[in-house]
Amino acid sequence: MLRPFWGVASLASRLPDLAASQGAQVTMLQRGLLSKYVTLERFTLRPRVLDVDDAIWLPGGVGYASGLARLSDHLICGNHFLAEQFSRWHERVSVIPTAVDVHRFVPAAAPSTELRIGWSGSSSGLRYLESIEGGLARVLARFPRATLRVVCDRPPRFRDLPSRRVEFVPWSAEAEVAVLQDLCVGIMPIDDSLWSRGKCSYKMLTYMACGVPVVVSPFGMNAEVLARGPVGLPAVTETEWEASLGRLLDDEGQRRSCGEAGRRVVEEHYSIERLAPRLARVFQEVAGGRARTAG
């Protein structure tokens, strides 16, 4: 019963943004003003650019996603899977991945000597981490010095992993980089679902920017990033997770070379310096189209 009142209050809080758009050359939309509903977006000033970095048509519905797309003059999608879907609803779609600040996410001054596997993310993604618990348990049993660090807004709920081998670190912006820098391997397990294929691999890219080798599920954009260089290893089954993690934990030289390759890949393909000019060109083209129409 409270949802209609919450919706009205939420929209009311966005009215200053709506008014501010009237003085802009381009309005950028990131999802809708009200989750899962197209509402006041049509009253923002055109041209509009819709930025999409998730499969928003799954929780919100096709009508929601396509409605936002059709109200927009240009779409920016974080990966090719999203672009393929949104191209059904709009002819002007650009693929620009989520950019990483490579001046903030940097390798540690000296590599950690600890065998520390790390996972970072929101609690909504803990189910992916918990799904590979068997493989993680076998790795920790094989490497008595190894530990698992979980950086999140709440602790994971493992059934079998010994608590003394799991370190929970509450996520904070201040500590985010430091807790990644002293990992020896960063992991990103996901499932082979439409929602996961819509992910833009930001977690994987931040590990790599910190010079940390990765083991990831090779689905969606994860596979695309893996293909750019020897940045780490893929894993799907629990046996593969055990094998890939074990291979990196066993070989310090390979960890170092994968970490260096990952850093290069982020700098060359996913850094703000590489992607900001592409984003600027989209805005310039869209704004230029508005000027030509007005003229």
SSE order and pairing:
Blueprint: H1 3-13, H2 15-21, E1 27-30, E2 48-52, H3 57-60, H4 62-71, E3 74-77, H5 80-86, E4 93-95, E5 116-120, H6 126-130, H7 133-142, E6 147-152, E7 166-170, H8 176-181, E8 185-188, H9 194-197, H10 202-209, E9 214-216, H11 221-226, E10 232-234, H12 238-250, H13 252-270, H14 272-294
Parallel strand pairs: 1-2, 2-3, 3-4, 5-6, 5-8, 6-7, 8-9, 9-10
Question: Please, could you describe this protein's structure?
Answer:
It is built from 14 helices and ten strands. With 295 residues, it is of the alpha/beta class. Helix 13 packs parallel to helix 14. The strands form two sheets. A six-stranded parallel β-sheet has the order 7-6-5-8-9-10, sandwiched between helices. The model is unreliable at 291-295 (pLDDT under 50). It folds into two domains: 11-99 and 273-294, no CATH class; 116-270, 3-Layer(aba) Sandwich (Rossmann fold). The longest helix has 23 residues, at 272-294.
Helices, by number, come to: 14
**Could you state the CATH homologous superfamily of the largest domain?**
Glycogen Phosphorylase B
Q: Biggest sheet: strands side by side, in what order?
A: 7-6-5-8-9-10
Kindly state the mean pLDDT as a whole number? 91
Number of domains: 2
Helical coverage, percent range? 40-55%
List low-pLDDT spans.
Answer: 291-295
Q: What best-fitting shape do the alpha-carbon axes yield?
A: elongated
CATH topology of the largest domain: Rossmann fold
Percent of residues in beta strands? 5-15%
Structural class: alpha/beta
Rg from alpha-carbon coordinates: 21 Å
